[in-house]
Amino acid sequence: MFFSTETLKQHGKEAHSNPFSLGNEELSLTGEMKTDEIQGFSVFNKVGPRRRAQTAKLTTLEGSYPTKEEASSIPSSFILRFFLRFISIFPEKLNFTHKPGLPGFVKGGNPFDLPKELWFETLKLITLVKNAFKILAQTLFRRLWNTGRKWVKIEDIRRVFWFPSKKAVYISCNWKNDAFFGSLFLNGCNPIMIKKYTEDQDQQKIPMETLEKLYPDIKESIRNGSIYVVDYAILDDLPEGEVNGYPQFLAAPIVLLQETKEELIPIAIQMKQRSGVDNPVFTPKDKPEAWLLAKIWVRNSDFYIHELVSHLLRTHLMGEIFFIANYSMADQHPISRLLRTTGRYTLPINITARNTLINEGGFFTEYTAFKKGAQWEVLKRATEEITYQSLCLPDNLKYRGVEDLKNYAYRDDGMAIWDAIKEFVEDVVNGCYKSDEDVWKDTELQQMVMYIYNFGFLQKKDCPSSLQTREEAIKYITMIMFTCSAQHASVNNGQYDIYAWMPNGPTTMRKPPPKDKEVTEHDIMSTLPEIDTTLEGMKVARFLSQEPQDFVPLGKYPEEVAFERHMRDPIPKFQKKLKEIGEKIDKRCHLQEFPYDYMHPGKMENSITI
Questions:
Q1: In three state form, how does the secondary structure of 100-152 look?
Q2: Is the CB of residue 526 less than 8 Å from the CB of residue 104?
Q3: pLDDT tens digits, 268-287
Q4: C-alpha closest to that of 464 among 13, 1, 11
Q5: Which residues make up each annotated binding site for Fe cation?
Q6: Which residues of 496-535 are buried (b: 16+ CB within 10 A; e: fewer)?
Q7: Per the record, which residues fall in region Disordered (predicted)?
Q8: S-S: 100 plus which of 31, 197, 367, 463, CB 3.0-4.6 Å?
């Protein structure tokens, strides 16, 4: 059903009490998975039953436009729809699941469980299959070449380091360098973890007296804002599993970094959250092998958080909710037409990921240190931390205190794209809504936001459940578009570059974190994953980094959308701005040894397609 304007006003601006609210018991972190057909929210498009109890029309554009129900009743299509209804064996509706403590998602065993218009197009499907066979063949050759062999020294890993990208080759030569290690927190494929270290911020995790013994001026450095921290607390006390019958191990490290005139240098690493005699603080002053192993443990932990949280949860799963909520709007609704392209292929690619990567028997249970169910626990913990502000780049940067951090290309490129999207959305929204009241009265827009509030943000108090003004609508829509394009590109496009050289992102560790600093190269090699596990990690990273053949860049819209009155002028203006951003990035990349182009507008898609 729809919100009426009277209903929304009755419940106030926050609209906490409404027909789409979930009870607290449905949002707890324990309990059974709940599955429903989306009917009241009517997430059907051009196929499938329409069962809304009420209909509504928006009059902010050129008169009213038909709702989905009205559009589906056009007589000229009756015979075709009648015929398809009786011969089709494919589903005509989305089945929605909400696992307690996680954003909701579409239930399905494969992409063909979706309505037909949401499937992969033929070219996309062919490309995925072709790339899969290519990568499987490469993996087979690597495996045959290394049959019966084991790692003895680090250079042995080059025996599987075939078909690398130029950036991967650079990493294989520079991964031990402290400055390069620090740069990955800024311009790697997980650039959203780092934040400023303040005097009142969890300083008991690494005792100050320990730090002062190592760095006598550490307090002064903290006060002047040159110390930053990356904390993997979300991995603390997770159940550890096995790979090929052998136990694997996890850490939950804390990394302190210091900004110098030109670089960001790691100065301290503690493997576990609680300090103790068997949990030493590693520094660059230690034995080289001990310091290197500590950094490898950080890269292992970063791999987990990057893939499950920064990538899967914060882009794929949130993007899925955004699309489902948008999909419930009438086809001709101007905001629906603006946002529909942000969900292209998102549902089928997410179904594929859930059934190959994070399912029981999938990659994370077979080739990482996670015991059965640990991946879901990480996702639940991370979901608790997601806020609306954390998905809005300007607010996120301010919260983390990284506005002035040097050489932070992710921030610079991200803000340029955020501003370009915001300007574009502002032009479209102001063309659609003549006043704030028009926004408030748009029942379909309010329904979309409430759906995301319930099933995406899980009714968190600091997340919007309605939009009151055009300004709020502009920011909200910008957040959706940025998450599904630029943010996803930043955490997706560099995966093979970063992880092809296994020690820079091992998928698991075979020995527990060191309790002392007497580390040898043998200790390092006996901790890193074996050849077969390494090959599986390389295979996944390569597959997820593939370039699409049916690429649709940010800013490109179908002709029927691009020529609409409220889109005709904003789209070319948006595309011109994106081109200018791309040219600026190109100039910078020519001057960089390790060029950061993961957020180049010409290399990012309009939606989450892989």
A1: CCCCCEECCCCHHHCCHHHCCCHHHHHHHHHHHHHHHHHHHHHHHHCCCCCCC
A2: no
A3: 999 999 998 999 999 999 99
A4: 13
A5: 311, 316, 488, 610
A6: bbbbbbbbbbbbbbbeebbeebebeeeebbebbbbbebbb
A7: 1-22
A8: 31
C-alpha span between 506 and 216 (Å, rounded): 34
Residue 244's CB is within 10 A of a number of other CB atoms, namely 10
d(CA 201, CA 136): 46
Q: Is the pLDDT of residue 232 over 50?
A: yes
Tokens of residue 37, six digits: 């057909």
Give rounded-to-5 percent helix, strand, coil for the chain.
50, 5, 40
What b/e sequence results for 70-82 when a residue is b if at least 16 CB atoms lie within 10 Å of its CB, and e otherwise?
Answer: ebbeeeeeeeeee
HSE (side-chain half, CA atoms, 13 Å) at 578: 25
Q: Phi and psi of 62, rounded to 5°?
A: -80, 80
Known binding positions: 311, 316, 488, 610
Q: CA 219, 223, 229, 235 torsion: positive or negative?
A: positive
Given a contact cutoff of 8 angstroms between Cβ atoms, the answer to whether 131 and 546 are in contact is yes
User: To the nearest whole number, what is the mean pLDDT of the chain?
Assistant: 85
Distance separating alpha carbons of residues 322 and 455, to the nearest angstrom: 10
| Amino acid, single-letter form, for residue 204 | Q
Question: Which tops the pLDDT comparison, 565 or 375?
Answer: 375
Q: Which of 552, 575, 558, 553 is nearest to 424 (CA)?
A: 575
Lowest mean pLDDT among 10-14, 141-145, 341-345, 385-389: 10-14
Report which of 294, 278, 280, 307 is spatially closest to residue 370, judged by C-alpha positions: 307
Q: Which pTM value belongs to this model?
A: 0.87
**234 near 381, Cβ under 8 Å?**
yes
Tell me the C-alpha distance between 197 and 220, whole Å.
12
pLDDT tens column, 81-102: 433 343 344 556 777 787 889 9
